Structure formats: C-alpha cells, structure tokens
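Open question from group meeting: does this chain pack into something compact, or does most of it stay loose? Before anyone orders reagents, we agreed to write out a predicted structure and look at it together. Recording both the input and the output here so the notebook holds the full record.
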Amino acid sequence: MKVKIGDLTKIKTGKLDANASSEDGQYPFFTCSKEPLKISTYSYDCECVLVAGNGDLNVKYYNGKFDAYQRTYIIENNSDGKLYMPYLYLFMEEYVEELRRQAIGGVIKYIKLGNLTDAMIELPSVEEQRNIVKILFKAKQILEQREIELEKLDELIKARFVEMFGNPDVNEKNWNVYKMEQLCEVGSSKRIYQNDQSLTGIPFLRISDLVNRMDTGSKDCDLFIPEELFEKFKKQGLVPARGDILLTARGTLGRCYIIQDDDEFYFQDGMITWLSKFDEKITPLYISYLFEMPEFRKQIDSLQAGSTVAYLSISMTKELNVMVPPLELQNQFAAFVAQTDKSKFDIHKFLYCTSNNTQSIIKPRPNTKESGKTRGGKLYADEF
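Structure tokens returned:
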C-alpha cells in the first residue's frame, strides 16, 4: 500500500539564520550542509527526518534536542503508530534524487513543501518496517566498510608511487625533468556551439559528466552531437584515442581520465584539456597518478596564485615540470596498479550488486537512477 508522506507526518521548517551557530554550542544545528553545526540553545526535542530545502538537498535522521535553519524541513511522525521513522529516513535517502529533479530556482535550487507531502511511500506493517531497517542498516555498514577498503587501496597505490619514484616536489632520486609540452601534445577539442548539440547521437561530455564518469563509472549524459559531425572530427584526428588523457581544467583541477577502448564521445573545450601523442619515455598511467600526488599539485596551486577562478589553462599545463623515471620502472608501477585494480574491481562489483539489492527493498516512486555507489545522507544517532 502506498501512502502520501503528508498523510503520515507533520512537516515544518526551522526558524533561524545560518549565522545563529555557536562553535562551543552543545546541541546540533542543522542547516542545508551535510554536516551539522553547533548551537547553544535548542527549539526542538523530537525524533525526526531532516531534509535540506535548498542546495545539496541532503537527508538526515535525528532523535533529541536540536535547532534548525529556516530552509531545513523537519519531518515528524503523525501516523498513530503506522510509521517507523528510521524507515522513512531510508526511504528519503533514496527519494532525494527525485527531489533534486523536482527542485526549482536559478543559482541555488530549492524544493517546496508539496514536494515532500506528495511523495508516495510504500507502507508495510511497522514490524516489517523495523525488519527492513535492520537489513538495510546492516547492509549500509558493510557498504561503508567496503568503501573504506577502496580508499585504502588508493592510498596504497600512492604510497607505492612515492616509494618507487620519490617526492615529485623534491625529486630526491634526481630523475630527468621535462616540461609537459616536451612529453605530449597539449590541446583541447574543437568548439561545439549550441546549434551543433542534439538530444541523440554521440555523447557530448561537459566537465561534470567527465568527473561523474571518473567517480561512479556512470556514462549518463544528456547532451549529444550528431554522428556525422563526430565522424568528421574523427577523420580529422580531433577525437581522443585509447590511452589519451582528458584533464579537468576548471573547478577541481588536474583530475585525469584515460581513454578506454570502448569510449566514444566528444568533450567540452576550455573546461577539459586533452593530452595525446605521448613521448616513448613516458606512460599515460604514470602521468595520471603524478597528477594525484599532492606534491606535484603544488605546481598547479602556484599557478593559481591571485586567481579568483580555479583554472588550468593549456599554456599552464604545457609549463608543468614533470620528473621522468626510467620506462621500465613506470611499467613495474603499471603492473602493480593493474593487480590492485583487480581487487578494486571485485569491491566495486560487490558494491554495485549489494546497493542494487538493498535499493530494491525500499524503492521510491518514481524510480531513481541507480549508480553502484552508496548515497549521501547521514544518520545522527548511535542506533535505531
């Protein structure tokens, strides 16, 4: 049986400005950010689900004394014992994707009260709700542990990089150093104007699409270019080939994506830099991990001095100093990465299958897109 959330709950918003927080406060102060601030007084003492009304639209659960920002929705139980609040929290964690699609506004998106009250939730018996929560809470703990394992594997690769090649900032092993433009061709794509974009065809990746592909493996895209235009660019050598690197040039700088065999897309000029035609003394994999090292990124930070917008231009990229260890050593590192990636693949596969299985237990309506990663939101309680 599906029921409107508005028929089971009472919903209000906080009353305070965001600057009402106090660093030495003893109570949580919930705003639209993912992490709560602190405050010295409280206005509420209840069990509730909190939904950020603008910005990120994240979801939290809390039971106790707290206060809230005026754009934070506070959802309390009003169901005469029909609703188990942690069950609502887990539902809202999934439904927040739909809320993000419904959000309106210009620079800062926001939702209205009706977006919450009209949401439909499957309502089994309270006993079934409790059982579902126990299953999902245990699954979330397992997923979080697996994600920690992924982070540790990433840290292991970086530690191995330093062990083999040394500190890129110091270059204590005295490897030869070259400018990036001496090691590869640094450029970008041909500009795609709005009248060249379409709703079908070959995916056209903006920087956000590229980052999403790196973070989640998702190939979702809502912009395309005609196939005939793509084929024209391909014949002109304007399409990245296997092993080329796409480098994020705005926002979060220096994220690297290495083109795979099955990749077929075009990309946004000015926001993404294209590294290709690598010299035989350097490998794309080595370059991609070099960009992940904090010591190497100091160069990028120094180029940004005095700039209000994080931007890594093509000319800046060409001037980056790159230490180049022997190719044999780079290949040994690549073999280590490949072995570690096997373990990461197994964990990703587990995350994807487990996430899909748990989502199917409490699937919101309408259906949300699935990604293989656990979702945002946070539980501010020791246990249910």
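Observations to bring back to the group:
Residues 365-383 have pLDDT under 50 and may be disordered.
The chain has ten helices and 18 strands.
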